[in-house]
Amino acid sequence: MKCSRVVIGCVVAVAIRPDVFAAERRMAPKTNPSAEEPFLTFRMLDEKLTLLGNQQHSLQAALDTNQSNSRYAAAAKQPWAVPARAMLRTAVSIKRLVTRREHLYRIRHRQFGIRLFSMLRTRAEAVRRNAVAVERARNRVAAESVQRELDKAILSLIVQFQGASGGYGATRCPPQAWTCCEPKRAKDLQGGEQAACRWICVQKSQSCTGFVGPRIR
Q: Torsion over CA of 144, 79, 121 and 1, rounded to 10 degrees?
């Protein structure tokens, strides 16, 4: 399926975020993990989305290969069920992770943080729901039909993740400054983004109208 392969390529290319890791190296270690948020979560999400992309390749391979020659055939009559189940587990872990961060910003009374991670949670749920549908598909035609919806859901999740994390690595904050997610204006949003961050530096955390990231030491 040509469309699916294009989406898979987007997953792998978009999920790898070297700027997030480079920015994290400029911050001194802290004993309180929440002080590193949301970039600790971004790093974990990046890893999980990369894993999801690899699992998506496996699902495509299972659907492309004849059942008689499939390496999944010995395990099940529906070879797509095994990779779909793996994707389901990954989607559940992503949803759990972003739900915890949504709760964190609720405690901090940061409305934009709540909104952003709520969107990620909703999109992770769409991935989970479609992975279940693929796993339960009774025949190849049905599995391929639902797979197209799964691909769209994954791409939607990644686009929103990019909206939240993109650009942080280009932010060069002086010592003692806070990294800050300022909500992007609606006209500056990229296709598929419902909300996004413009990462800037602020001297006081109270002056950040969105939500703060780690403080640079």
A: -30
